[in-house]
Amino acid sequence: MKITYDKSADAVYIYLISDEELKPSWVKKTQPCDTSINLDFDDKGRLGGIEVLNASLKLSQEVLSMAKIIG
Q1: How is residue 44 annotated by DSSP?
Q2: Within 10 Å of residue 4's Cβ, how many Cβ atoms?
Q3: Which of 14, 15, 30, 70 could serve as a FRET partner for 45 with CA atoms 20 to 30 Å apart?
Q4: What is the pLDDT of residue 14?
């Protein structure tokens, strides 16, 4: 599992698939859960990632500090 945090967008992305499985356009379907959480699925219907918008309001500082800062 890998976690990234884009400070400028205040968005966290939690990758549930390996780096080997990451390839351009791996996301085949995005399912919104609410206004700030989206689930990304691959072509086999497997959950591969979770996007959390407004992350600083939704997630603890502990989680944010574990993330790789990308923006």
Answers
A1: T
A2: 15
A3: 70
A4: 95
